[in-house]
Design goal:
Order of helices and strands: HHHHEEHHEHHEEHHEE
Number of helices: 10
Shape: elongated
Mean pLDDT: 78
Strand content: 5-15%
Distance between the termini: 116 Å
Radius of gyration: 36 Å
Length: about 270
């Protein structure tokens, strides 16, 4: 028998529907060695069932193959390779990465069959508004409703309610602002939803820096009143509007004073 880390990991993941962390997998290897040491001690003491030489030799070979300690890198690389093999061979399962570790799930192309088995309703996709709001929370968290609406330019009530119902975001506190508005942040279920372990693994945004976005939000939430210079008037105020009417050789000029200045002819 050959020690095959990928097959062992696949067996461990298939045995549970919960996430398995790297520490839990390492603990399995540690317990395996501890159990072998106890068995050897019992055998030397003449306790337990006797075994023939070929079987004992096979066990010794396996013991020599199993490393005493598996590093997190070794486990992670083995799981990544196993998941890649599953995709290439069209396996019905995949390995999902989450904040709490790894677990085996049904491949997306076979999810419909599982849904029919359970007689579950069809999953509903997030609307564009919900996706935009979720992205703002993910990159700006903790963030308030006013900040979301300042960035999107529309009300965020419906999108926030939908994301709260799906447990993708949650109330995380109150901002140190007038009125102490509620702040929202993403949840572990959000990380599971997008397949990340930590929020720091989100791709970097190269459009605007966080400081630029914060300055833009502040300006949008506290608009300034335009001055006369901003709209093209002089500093002392708007000039007097003038309207003129030309009718052949007749010219009538009307000013704010309401006075009419006739030319050589009367109308």
């Amino acid at each position: 028998m050959e020690f095959n880390l990928k097959k062992i990991l696949k067996a461990l993941l298939a045995s549970t529907s919960e996430f398995l962390s790297i520490k839990e997998i390492q603990a399995v290897i540690t317990r395996w060695h501890e159990q072998r040491e106890k068995d050897e001690a019992r055998a030397l003491a003449g306790i337990g069932e006797s075994s023939d030489a070929p079987t004992q030799g096979l066990i010794e070979d396996i013991i020599n193959q199993v490393p005493i300690l598996l590093t997190a890198t070794q486990i992670r690389e083995a799981l990544e390779e196993l998941n890649r093999e599953m995709k290439e061979t069209g396996d019905a399962t995949r390995i999902q990465v989450g904040p709490e570790g790894f677990r085996m799930v049904v491949a997306p192309e076979y999810a419909e069959w599982v849904r029919l088995l359970r007689n579950d309703p069809r999953p509903q996709k997030l609307t564009q508004a919900a996706l935009e709001t979720l992205a703002i929370v993910a990159y700006r968290q903790p963030t308030t409703r006013a900040e979301m609406e300042a960035l999107r330019g529309v009300s965020a009530d419906s999108a926030i309610s939908r994301l709260l119902d799906l447990e993708l975001i949650a109330v995380s506190g109150r901002a140190d602002l007038p009125g102490r508005p509620t702040q929202f942040s993403t949840t572990p279920k959000f990380l599971e939803f997008i397949g990340l372990k930590t929020i720091s693994e989100l791709p970097e945004s190269d459009v605007l820096s966080p400081a630029q976005i914060a300055a833009w939000i502040q300006k949008a939430m506290n608009p300034t009143k335009p001055t006369n210079g901003d709209v093209g008037f002089g500093e002392k105020g708007a000039p007097e509007p003038t309207a003129s009417l030309d009718l052949g050789d007749v010219s009538v000029e009307n000013r704010d004073t309401g006075e009419n200045t006739p030319d050589d002819k009367e109308i």
